Amino acid sequence: MGDSAVAMRFDNQVVLITGASRGIGRAAAKLFASAGARVAVHYRNRRDAAEETLASLQGGGHAVFSADLAHERAAGMLVEDVVNRMRGLDVLVNNAGIFEYHEISTVEFDQWLDAWRRTLATNLLAPACLSYLASRQMMKMGGGRIVNVSSRGAFRGEPRAPAYGASKAGLNAMGQSLAQALAPHGVYVFTVAPGFVDTDMAKSSLSGPAGDAIRNQSPLGRVARPEEVARTVLFLASKGSEFLTGGIVDVNGASYLRS
Ligand code: NAD
Questions:
Q1: 164 annotated active-site
Q2: Strand order in 91-94's β-sheet?
Q3: How many CB atoms lie within 10 A of CB 209?
Q4: Beta strand 14-17 with 187-194: parallel, antiparallel or unpaired?
C-alpha cells in the first residue's frame, strides 16, 4: 500500500463533489483539497456560496461548476465540463440531495407525486447518470472511485419522507451493483450512510422542539459534524480502500445499529 495509503493523499487527482456549496459537500471539498486533490466544486444556483467554498480550499487548480441535477441532461454536461476543464476525473462524490416532507396521510396526490419525482430525480437518477458518465471516463483512464452519500433513513425508514428513504435505499443498491460491475475495470464504488448531520438540511429539525431527542438518538448525545462524514468519504476514496468496494459505512454515532 505504501505511505500514500496511510496519509490518504490525492495529489494529481481530480475530485468532483456534487452539492459542494455548503454542508457535507463543502466539508469534503476542504478535506480533499487539503489532501492534495484538485476539486471540482459543483453547485446548483448559489454561485456565491460555491465561490466561498472555492476560496476556502488549500492548494490550486480547483474550479466551480454549475448544474441542476434534477435534469438528467445536466448531469451529462457536468461530467463533460469537468473532464474538459480539469483534464480528467478520478473521484466522483455523489453528495447532492434533497429531503422533503410528504406525509402520506396528509398530502394531496399531486404533491405526493411531485415529491417522489423530485426526490428520485435528484437523489437517485442524478447519481446514476453521473456514475455512468464518470465511470466511462475512469475506465478510459485506468480506474477511479465513486462515493455515494446515502442515509440512515434507507434502513430505518422515513415515515414523513418516504421518497427520501426509498431514494437512499435505491442509492445503496445501485452502489452495490455498480461495485460488482465496475471492479473488473478498476473503478471502486462505496456508500456512506450518515444519521443526522449538523447542516442546513437538518437545521429546522435540530433547532426545533425535537432537537434534543434527535441528539439523544446517539449515545454520544449529539449529531454528526459534516467533517466527520467528509473524513469517511475521503477514507473510502483513498488508495488502500479498494477491498471495501460495495460496502455501506454507517456514520450515525450508534443511533441505529444493524448487523
Ligand atoms: P445540504 O442541504 O446542506 O446540501 C445539499 C446540497 O445538494 C446543496 O448544496 C444543494 O444545493 C445540493 N442540491 C440539491 N438539489 C440539487 C439539484 N437539483 N442540483 C444540484 N444540486 C442540488 O445538506 P447536507 O446535509 O450537506 O446533504 C448532503 C448529503 O447528505 C445529501 O445527499 C443528504 O441526503 C445526505 N444526508 C444528510 C443528512 C443530514 O442530516 N444533514 C443525513 C443523512 C444524509
A1: yes
A2: 63-66, 38-43, 14-17, 91-94, 144-149, 187-194, 248-251
A3: 7
A4: unpaired
Give the Cα separation of 74 and 76 in Å (integer). Answer: 5
Q: Which of 17, 30, 199, 205 to mutate to test the pocket of ligand 1 (most atoms within 8 A of CB)?
A: 199
- Write the CA distances from 239 to 83, 110, 138, integer angstroms: 21, 46, 15
pLDDT digits 0-9 by tens, 56-110: 999 999 999 999 999 989 988 999 999 999 999 999 999 999 999 999 999 999 9
167: cell is 431514494
Choosing among 3.30.360.10, 3.40.50.720, 1.10.3720.10, 3.40.630.30, the CATH entry for 2-251 is 3.40.50.720
pTM over 0.85: yes
Greatest alpha-carbon span in the chain: 57
Name the grid cell of 84: 474538459
Own/partner pairs, 154-157, CB within 8 angstroms, 24+ separation? 154/193, 155/193, 155/256, 155/258, 156/256
Ligand 1-lining residues (CB < 6 angstroms): 19, 21-25, 44, 68-70, 95-99, 122, 149, 151, 194, 196-197, 199-202
Distance set, CA 68 to CA 46, 118, 146, 174 (Å): 11, 12, 20, 21
Q: DSSP H helical segments within 97-161, as ranges?
A: 109-120, 126-141, 153-156
- pLDDT one-digit tens code per residue, 35-48: 999 999 999 999 99
Of the listed 43, 164, 188, 256, which one is catalytic?
164
Q: How many angstroms separate the alpha carbon of residue 49 from the centre of ligand 1?
A: 14
